[in-house]
Amino acid sequence: MSARGAFAKSSLYVLLPGLLVSLGGCGFEHYRARPLQPQVTAARLAARSLRAPVLRAYLEHALGHRLRHWPLLVWTPRRLTLAALYYNPQLAAARARMAIAQAGLSTAAERPNPSLGIGPGYETFPVSPWTLRLGGLLPIETAGKRAARMRVARRQIEMVRFQIASAAWHVRAQLRAALLAFFNARRRLALLRAAARNSAQAAQILRRRYQAGEWARPPYLAAERRSIQAQMALEQAQGAFRQARLTLAAAIGVPASSLRGGRLQWPGFGQPPAPASLPKPQLERWAEINRLDLRQALAQYAVAQANLQSQIALQYPNLNLGPGYSYQEAQSVLRLTLSLVLPVFNHNQGPIAQAKAERDQLAAAFMALQARDRAAAANAWEGYRAAWNAWHTALANERLAGRVQAAAGQAMRQGETGKLSYNAARTQSNLARQNTWRALANAQAALGQLEDAVERPLTPAWQLSGKKGKP
Known about the structure:
Blueprint: H1 3-25, H2 38-47, H3 53-63, E1 74-75, H4 77-87, H5 89-109, E2 115-122, E3 130-140, H6 145-211, H7 217-252, E4 263-264, H8 280-289, H9 292-313, E5 319-328, E6 331-340, H10 349-413, H11 419-454
Parallel strand pairs: 1-4
Antiparallel strand pairs: 2-3, 3-5, 5-6
């Protein structure tokens, strides 16, 4: 054996084990089990609190200033929204999709691994027929396939960002609806308590007069029935208030016990903005340009565009570079082969046509979504205007009922009428206040629907930035 052959053979024996060891020990992930334990996750959910120090740090970072008191004495819509964004599990699930999309970008950026083969051979030579062969295959991607895959992955990441933003808005919308239901249930409970007291007083007055022989039995029994009905309505309102409290806690993502201790305030609740201050053309423009579902649809269209580019690139075959080495006695032979898949029977026409059709479908769906969102904004604005006008009509009726009650009170003090007439006027005034509050709650609900139509806060109380911007 020549010196060159011996050196090549010894080098081969030294390098191959080292190569195999390096392939087996570098950069490989190892499986680690992370089982879900319902008892542990339930304990974590139960431990959530609006007094947690981690929540304070999050609020201070989001608000941009230190909180003077902790636990907070007052919870405003802005603070509750941030707490919901921190605790609500829907947003955590949406964030998890971002990790999947980012891993998809890493997958798209990976290059195909080369292959390596080694083994003995036998040739029918008269001298030393045994030989050692070493061969490999190095894939070479052409036509920018890797870059096309990465474009698809980046567009998917952008689409997931808008999905997260949409999930955040959904959390905010749920919180607003739950807080509105809580305020409505709390105020309605107070009004029905007053109504139940009025009905009980009227029934008591008529009972005394009936017992004294001044009134007939039917009016007295009718008053008793109205008192019982008022008590039943009060008990139903108490149950609705407890349910509203639970719903609000669920919208934030904390146990209902966390709502104790802090006062819930909604600045500007009793002064919803006039429809004239919310220009309808501007809202329609926002709906057809800035809604998150439209941006998500645009990102999905960009994914389809990038996927079409990727499918077009796939019509060009990749190259396979195959270097090889063989050793026999004192002879070393190097080989180099080049292979590719011949595009004879197809040029990837099917997937390309499918990608084009998908892109066209998404374009048509985007236009339909844009028209739907514009119409939804217009309908929501009209609904809000009607609800706002109904609230102002109820306000006028409440003021009139208040004047009637004041006049009845003055007449009672002057001896012109009795307590029963004043009680009837007070009952009507209470009914007017209930109607006004119901109309105000309807106006706030319609305003929430208008905000959902444009996916933008329309009052300063719900703007996370704290800036009093105008539409």
